[in-house]
Specification:
Helix 1 packs antiparallel against helix 3. The chain starts with 5 loop residues before the first helix and ends in a 6-residue tail after the last helix. Strand 1 and strand 2 form a beta hairpin. The chain has a two-stranded antiparallel sheet with strand order 1-2. Helices cover about 75% and strands about 5% of the residues.
Length: about 90
Amino acid sequence: MAFESEDKAKAYWRENLSLMLKLLLVWFAVSYGTGIILADWLNQFQLFGFKLGFWFAQQGAIYVFVILIFVYVHQMNKLDRKYDVHED
């Protein structure tokens, strides 16, 4: 990966870290928030026959994590094109 200047390299990594922190915050909120903190309240509701708090703790956080992987790949491809460091 070759950047045109040091400033562009720093800007690229700054945006990359910002994206990662946002996605990790979403993952934390879903896994910790819905699976632990809000589990009792969410258990009032059912999803596929399971209590919603239990479902998030066992399945939902994993699904969100997989979705976040695809979001990260998509956003990084856009970022690579923006800074002209994409692979052909």
